[in-house]
TrEMBL record:
It comes from the Eukaryota. It comes from Adineta steineri. This is Uncharacterized protein. InterPro entries: Prot-tyrosine_phosphatase-like (IPR029021).
Length: 64
């Protein structure tokens, strides 16, 4: 599974949906909290013990 993310600040990563779902990479990087901003519902995993916050936002090319 792909992990496409960039370290943008001390312990703050910005990544893709694939990165957010890559539990092996998340574990190896000790990522414990995830904020997702996307216009869709996300699947939940009962075995995932990360703290997650989902913000549903429309992403349009005409929006700043």
């Amino acid at each position: 599974m792909e992990f496409s993310a960039d370290l943008i600040d001390d312990r703050v990563w910005l990544g893709s949906l694939d990165a957010m779902e890559n539990t092996i990479a998340l574990d190896s990087l000790h990522i414990t909290h995830i904020i997702s901003i996307i216009n869709s519902e996300l699947p939940t995993d009962a075995n995932d013990n990360r703290i997650r916050k989902h913000i549903r936002v429309e992403d349009m090319e005409t929006t700043d």
